[in-house]
Design a protein that fits this description.
The protein has 396 residues and is an alpha+beta fold. It has 10 helices and 8 strands. A hairpin with a 4-residue loop joins strand 7 and strand 8.
């Protein structure tokens, strides 16, 4: 019966997997075999609500995959040119006039060959449970490049890659993938000086704050690895990025929002992750991130013996820092505002102010108190939470 479908068989792999599927069949001429993948099943397809990721009952399977068409021969092996990803597989078989013998299904797992050397110990057992999940996430997002996600875009973004590289240094000590990421982003630089936000990618998207995080990636490499020549090769790129931002300084010493997608974090109420006045105006978070990059570049130049350039970056950092405090400080709240009108306030700005160490002691203490106690600050999402944790670590 050529119209007969075997009901979809859903396989729970019980972990996230990136793999090449391999199917061995015999006979079954006229049959069709579909192997589809999903990260999780959906409670509601229209809203894309998933609920608990490990549950499958009363949910819909909606995924991507491959279709194989047997020719009726014996022990035919089918695979794919590109690997697939997810936790759940669905097997759909449509038979023809000839019986199909499904002999074997294999998954050939693929990811960057990390050798994990770091260890984590904690008295809180809940944290101990999280570490294997984090390790698996790093593996699944590491292939020939880092990537934001193995299931959807499979693109290497600067904002994600900086954190992935830091974890790689700490947990493996292997510098090869971080070096490749840093070099590729350097190669992606446009004539403007900005790096592309994601690379390699045929579709060019510029996120200016990500160019500043790329300077942070070079700085991180300096802090974690002993490879002076590689740092020297990146110096031209570091200078080009900073000069692109210097061109946007106004007469007050503040940075006007650069042209591009000035993404900072996925915050509810922020338009596509762009903070208040971050699209065409003047935003404190972008200014503070610029200060942080200037400080990092100064250390890079000092390391390479370029003391004159280091002094220039320090002077610029001081100039912008003074302007940020002058125009964004709200004495009534004891916080730095996001915008010049002092209407919006966020955790992001307070974190960056503390990470850059630009505040006088009295203002610093007020910002610390506000960051720890105020509930009306725009909160960091999981993406920016690393910088929140870095800030809290300084307050110990």
């Amino acid at each position: 019966n050529i119209s007969r479908f075997v009901p979809g068989t859903i396989i729970d792999l019980e972990n996230y997997v990136c793999a090449y599927p391999e199917i061995k069949v015999s006979k079954g001429k006229g049959s069709k075999i579909k192997v589809e993948w999903a990260e999780a099943l959906f409670r509601n397809l229209s809203t894309r609500e998933k609920g608990k990721r490990d549950q499958i009952y009363d949910k819909y399977f909606y995924g991507v995959g491959d279709e194989f068409i047997p020719d009726g021969g014996r022990q035919r092996i089918f695979s794919t040119f590109k690997w697939q990803a997810g936790r759940f597989m669905q097997l759909l078989i449509k038979t023809g006039r000839e019986p199909l013998i499904l002999q074997q299904i294999l998954l050939k797992e693929t990811h960057y060959p990390y050798q994990f050397k770091g260890q984590f110990r904690c008295s809180d057992k809940e944290f101990t449970k999280v570490i294997p999940i984090c390790q698996r996430a790093l593996e699944m997002c590491s292939h020939d490049t880092y990537m934001d996600c193995p299931y959807y875009e499979r693109l290497m973004y600067v904002g994600d890659s900086r954190l992935e590289a830091l974890i790689t240094y700490v947990y493996t000590g292997d510098p090869r993938l971080p070096k490749k990421a840093i070099a590729l982003f350097d190669y992606s630089r446009k004539n403007s000086g900005y790096t592309q936000s994601r690379y390699p990618c045929w579709d060019q998207v510029i996120i200016p704050p990500f160019s500043l995080w790329w300077v942070g990636m070079v700085y991180d490499f300096l802090m974690w690895q002993d490879d002076k020549e590689f740092i020297r090769q990146r110096l031209k790129g570091v200078h080009a990025v900073l000069e692109a931002f210097v061109a946007g300084l106004n007469e007050k010493g503040l940075l006007t929002a650069p042209q591009g997608w000035n993404f900072v974090d996925w915050v509810e109420g922020w338009d596509e992750g762009v903070p208040p006045e971050g699209r065409f105006g003047i935003n404190a978070a972008i200014n503070l991130q610029f200060i942080l990059a200037l400080q990092q570049a100064a250390q890079i130049d000092e390391y390479l013996g370029e003391n004159e350039m280091a002094l220039r970056w320090k002077r610029l950092a001081q100039r912008v820092s003074q302007a940020v405090i002058k125009f964004f400080w709200d004495a009534q709240r004891g916080l730095l505002a996001d915008d010049l009108a002092k209407k919006y306030f966020s955790q992001h700005v307070q974190c960056l102010a503390l990470l850059t160490h630009i505040l006088p002691q009295k203002k610093k203490q007020k910002v610390i108190k506000g960051l720890l106690t105020r509930k009306d600050l725009a909160p960091c999402s999981i993406y920016f939470s690393f910088y929140l944790i870095e800030t809290l670590a300084q307050l110990r």
